[in-house]
Amino acid sequence: MMMLYYISSMLFLMISKMMMVMSLFMLMNKITYFMEWNVMILNSMNINLFIYMDWIMMMFIFTVLLISSMIMLYCCEYMNHDNNNIRFFYLIFFFILSMLFMVISPNMISILIGWDGLGLISYCLVIFYQNNYSFNSGMLTILLNRIGDVTILMGISLMMTMGNWNFIFNNKMFNLMFMLMIMISAFTKSAQYPFSSWLPAAMAAPTPVSSLVHSSTLVTAGVYLLIRFHYLIYKNDYIMKIIIFISLITMMMAGFSANFEYDMKKIIAFSTLSQLGLMMLIFAFKNWELSYFHLVIHAMFKSMMFMCSGILIHGMMNYQDIRYIGKLKYHMPMTFSMLMISNLSLCGMPFMSGFYSKDQILEVMFFINNNLIIYFFLMISTGLTVSYSIRMIYYLMFKILNFNSFNNIKEFKLMNYSMILLMFMSIFYGYMMNLLIFSNIESVFLDMMEKLSIILICLSFIILNKLLNFIKNFKVMYFIKYFFGKMWFLYNFIPLFIIFPMNFSKMYLNCYDKGWSEMIFKNSLMMLMNKMNNFDNFMNNNNNIILMMLNLMILMIIMMMMM
């Protein structure tokens, strides 16, 4: 079975290299392919499959398959002793196929098939470890993602007025309701506020799933969908204002929640949530190229961060509280070095991959003449990113390792090998992409104070994080921890929106299906049939000649009238 993981890893790696070369070729020669394949003809009805190939699609497939290749190699050792590793392999494989099917298609019907496949298989992966916590997390995940599936269906019905489901040809048509449906679908899949609660809950899945699904593929599908529809969304300012407002709230909420969280995987999940908000924000300012640039770079170092956390959890016997993990620089130097690199790239450390996209986003935001509140929230979110990254490094590096007798901390050879390529991508990928593909993004020139303000904000939030450690035992801090730990009470509000429709449907079932309709239709028909049966028995048993003659006369009158 492990050989199957290894073969699929090598296959995905070779295909990803081909996709990278084709992406550069298409970009430099400005080539786009649109292919239509007639799958079958059923009762004079053509069933066609459409494929749209450009450099955006090729680059995204390269990112997905490269990370998938490393995850498959990672699973050779991580899932080696799991009893259900065959089921896990098929779930991961079909998830990748669903993702590719969604990416290559310009047709809303085909996108729906891939979109539904992503939601269904991600639910199966979240409940892979069969316990109550996984079942609750899976139910929350699939119910919130169903909202996006419904809006995609409504968007398909609205596209019927355009006469074509291939959205690539409808660039001159604008339907406000259709764009709202696409926006809500992107929000649910990318876990934007108020649909954010499913992403931290989905950390109940195995760590390779978190690395592939919840960092670089599933959650970025919403951003990718918006990028595909950017030429329509940019025609309406109200939609962009909604995206700006929602993305800022998501960044703030995720940043604060990560600073009060102790679960290692949830901290990284909140980090993903914050970066998705940043992608949405720069997209809403009509700069989709920069949003896409950050998307592909973020996928590299965030997947490696999840893989490093998986090694730590594997070594700590499934224990993932950062308060009990420490002194990793002595026990796991290679894993800790890779975790440091991914954290520094996330913070935007100069000349790391994340620096080339994140610093450029902040400079473009400074250059745009816009509301001061947007800059204020953006700077706070940037500072919070540095704060929770340094906090996690501090706990893992300087704190004392607890529960030493219950752990199996060591370097895992094959897992470390699978992260080496991602480590190099986390360091050099941003520089390469900045030269090869995204060099046409406009340069921004700021004065010295605006340049230094980003560094000063980050340093001030590191100091603020240290101050919070001194006042963490104050009574007011208990409420603050509870407030941010519950994602601004989003965990409490979201079930209300689920419970109300469920209670309403139960009331409808009891009052209508089992109530009025039961009494009117079923009982009334039964009473009528019983009366007719009793009348027939009365006629046959009593040999009532008068009534028989009366029935015969009525029948003859009816026949004469018909003649």
Automatic annotation (TrEMBL):
Ranges for domain NADH dehydrogenase subunit 5 C-terminal: 388-561
Ranges in coiled-coil conformation: none
Domain NADH:quinone oxidoreductase/Mrp antiporter transmembrane residue range list: 105-381
Claim: Transmembrane helix is one of the keywords in the record: yes
Pfam name, any one: Proton_antipo_M
EC number(s) given by UniProt: 7.1.1.2
Signal peptide (from-to): none
Keywords assigned: Electron transport, Membrane, Mitochondrion, Mitochondrion inner membrane, NAD, Respiratory chain, Translocase, Transmembrane, Transmembrane helix, Transport, Ubiquinone
GO cellular component: mitochondrial inner membrane
Keyword Transmembrane helix (UniProt): yes
Subcellular location per the Swiss-Prot or TrEMBL entry: Mitochondrion inner membrane
Residues annotated as transmembrane: 12-35, 55-76, 88-105, 111-129, 150-168, 174-191, 212-233, 239-260, 267-285, 291-313, 334-352, 372-394, 414-432, 452-471, 483-504, 545-562
Catalytic activity: a ubiquinone + NADH + 5 H(+)(in) = a ubiquinol + NAD(+) + 4 H(+)(out)
First-listed, main subcellular location of the protein, grouped into a coarse class: mitochondrion
Function: Core subunit of the mitochondrial membrane respiratory chain NADH dehydrogenase (Complex I) that is believed to belong to the minimal assembly required for catalysis. Complex I functions in the transfer of electrons from NADH to the respiratory chain. The immediate electron acceptor for the enzyme is believed to be ubiquinone.
Annotated protein name in UniProt: NADH-ubiquinone oxidoreductase chain 5
